[in-house]
Design goal:
Layout: H1 3-6, H2 10-18, H3 22-44, H4 47-64, H5 74-96, H6 123-141, H7 145-156, H8 161-168, H9 172-199, H10 207-221
Helix pairs in contact: 2-3, 3-4, 3-5, 3-10, 4-5, 4-10, 6-9, 7-9, 8-9
């Protein structure tokens, strides 16, 4: 028998979770936490707020379990709950921004003009740009030499086709062809890097999942189960 076949289905876990059985609650949350966190994170763009939204969404879901109808997919039902919770939380944060500044990585509704005379430190953005720059530099380095040179002169040094052709002693048509090819190779290489990174984006299994699950269990223990 495969491992998947030995795992209880959502129906069995729901029955246990409705009785606040810790093993069922943990199993149910671990099964759906990653999707819920990614949903919340996509809306809130902040890890801590997303974790709080997932916790609150789970508590609402557990309270509503007696009303849950099996005609709907549990994952869809849970996702809708966490999306609504995240949207509500985002609106609350944005209203608060009118009086209390939001945290750095939650932008206001409308961009405000920057004061050119006051430099604004933004370490997360600077780090992200540095990471992107390192990625681009590595991919440029990996280009075949004939393409890399043309790309460096045209794209990085911003030289014209005529200047590049003159500097390298090659026809202008060759510069255009190599530059076009270099851009294509670079896009493909970066796209592959992004695809690999996307597989691990907002990784969930492990500490974050356990933290949310433990917090919800503690809060569930302090409240009686809902009565059908």
């Amino acid at each position: 028998m495969s491992q998947a076949a030995r795992l209880p289905d959502d129906t069995a876990l729901l029955e246990g979770a409705a009785r606040r059985e810790e093993s069922a609650v943990r199993a149910l949350m671990r099964r759906h936490n990653q999707r819920l966190f990614r949903t919340a994170r996509a809306i809130l763009r902040n890890d801590a707020e997303a974790e709080e939204a997932v916790q609150d969404a789970w508590l609402k879901a557990f309270d509503a379990l007696p009303k849950f109808r099996q005609q709907a997919r549990l994952s869809t039902w849970l996702t809708r709950i966490v999306a609504n919770e995240s949207i509500t939380r985002l609106r609350r944060l944005r209203r608060g921004a009118e009086v209390v500044p939001l945290m750095d990585d939650l932008p206001p509704l409308e961009a405000e003009p920057l004061n050119d005379h006051v430099p604004l430190a933004d370490p997360p953005r600077e780090f992200a740009r540095a990471e992107v720059r390192r990625l681009v530099e590595a991919r440029i380095d990996a280009l075949p030499e004939v393409f890399r040179t043309v790309f460096m002169l045209r794209a990085v040094e911003d030289m014209t086709v005529e200047e590049t052709a003159e500097a390298l002693g090659i026809p202008e048509a060759t510069v255009r062809t190599r530059f076009f090819r270099a851009r294509g190779l670079l896009r493909e290489a970066i796209a592959r890097e992004v695809d690999f990174a996307m597989e691990d984006a907002f990784g969930f299994a492990g500490e974050r999942c356990e933290r949310i699950t433990t917090a919800v269990l503690a809060r569930l223990a302090a409240t009686p189960p809902a009565v059908a």
